[in-house]
Amino acid sequence: MSGASWLSYSLQDFVMFGPEVLLRLFIRINEAVWPWQSLWLVAGLLLPWLARQSAEWPRRMAMALAGLAWIGCGYLFMVRYYGPVNTPATWFGWAFVFQGLLLLMLRGRALPVPLGLSLAVAGWLVILVLPWLAVLQSGDVRALALFGMAPGVTVAATVLLFARQPLLLRWFLLLVPLAWSLFSALTYWSLGTYWLLGFPVAALVILVVALRVSPSPVQSRDLRSARPDPERRLP
Amino acid sequence: MVRLSRRRFLIGAGLGSLALVSSPLLAGKVAAPGDAPQARPIPSTGEHLPAIGMGTWITFNVGSDQRLVDQRTRVLETFLERGGSVIDCSPMYGSSADVVGAALETLDARDRIFAASKIWTGDGSETREQAASSARRWGIPRFDLLQVHNLLSWQEHLATLKDMKARGDVRYLGITTSHGRRHDELARVIETEDLDFVQLTYNVLDREAEKRLLPLAHERGVAVIVNRPFQGGSLFRRFQSEPLPNWAGEAGIETWAAFFLKFIISHPAVTCAIPATTRIDHMRENMAAMYGTLPDAGQRRMMAEYVRQL
């Protein structure tokens, strides 16, 4: 196809379902798992608390919880429900599952340092406030987009854990969240579901904030090798 | 349509007589008001089709959402009740083929439709497999019409479709484009290939096809299916708040849907327009455009001028 021909396409030409179908996904998944989504809500609230503990095992649990959340929403929401109407969602769904498995395997490494209070509060806000964006968009309280089930909230709540990882691992873990945020933002924009743009925007804001308040390498023994500080002579 | 004898009988009985009152050459003349739907002959066989069909792009891609599948079934039911039969789909349209199949099953309507699908794969050797896969999803033994989607690998697919037609595996073959793309190439295909159908975009604002493709199709005896009759809904967003012209009634137009659709189906080269909708009330409006008076050539010019001025 010629370049000029490609230019004749608009964003809307690549979205082959309507906003009604997208918003029904949130309702359908809530109906399918009822009442077990309450466990995911509790798990979501536990996540920032575990991540800010000084002992290592709670932080390992936080990573494992994040992994389970990625697998859960990747398979159930993306592959089972979203994929049949949007093929790329199936690919993203399996990428979510892979990312979740990776997080489970990484749990032994835990978080290098505990989460600060400000980031923990941001995490709780994501878990409690962000789900209502889908309700605002649909006008239906059954569309609540919960952590561990809806990708937007799951991504936004867990990027703050990824931002705390050593440099290489950090960006490896951020590949799927960033790609998903871009993809979902374009989808929501072309469907005119503007409230849902809050999901990718929140994920990116939290990521930027988390990167800015990340501990410097000299603050963390685990991060020294990621960015050596020439001013600090190690024994 | 699949069991030819029964289906041909049903559609033929319903439409055969309509041909007498709705030849494309008579477009602009008054059909018996409020009764017979506009029908058009397929030039290659003379078989008549209702002038309004149904597209499924976006609207029928609802996945496994049973509530929406049921609702789309009601939309299809309304379409059939109002005299429609041409249903157009594509493997590109996500779950649309499955939803059409489920709706046809519920309505027990497989022998009341003119089933049109597309071949959409870059692999020119997969024509038969994709046609068979689509037929399974619709729940029918074969399609009435198979079209090469957006000219993708059209040489290979068309060769296979010709062979399938010769063997009776499909009744008609065609080729499609949309959004006004690749018209020069499409014109060359119409000129050089033996087609039954061509599908293209044509509406009151996108009138590029009037210059060459529609006259060429008419001259070559190729039926024309028109997609995007509402420009993906943007015609409504743009004009619905405006009043219809005060002469609209004389052209048999009472709604903007009728305005847009009657403009299309009153073109002598057009066989059928395939609007898509998710709503029963909109389906009723669309199908109403298939009845009553059609605008004549002068009124068509006034229609185009009216929307241009808005």
From TrEMBL, chain B:
> Looking at the Swiss-Prot or TrEMBL record, what is one Pfam family this protein matches?
Aldo_ket_red
Per its UniProt entry, which superkingdom is the organism in?
Bacteria
- Gene3D superfamilies attached to this UniProt entry: NADP-dependent oxidoreductase domain
Q: Which ranges of the sequence are coiled-coil?
A: none
- PANTHER family (UniProt xref): D-THREO-ALDOSE 1-DEHYDROGENASE, NADP-DEPENDENT OXIDOREDUCTASE DOMAIN-CONTAINING PROTEIN
For this UniProt record, give its keywords in alphabetical order, as a comma-separated list: Signal
Which residues belong to any copy of the NADP-dependent oxidoreductase domain?
52-296
Q: What is this protein called?
A: Aldo/keto reductase-like diketogulonate reductase
Q: Please list which residues make up the signal peptide.
A: 1-27
For the keyword Signal, the answer is: yes
Could you tell me which species this protein originates from?
Answer: Marinobacter santoriniensis NKSG1
- Statement: the UniProt record of this protein carries the keyword Transmembrane helix: no
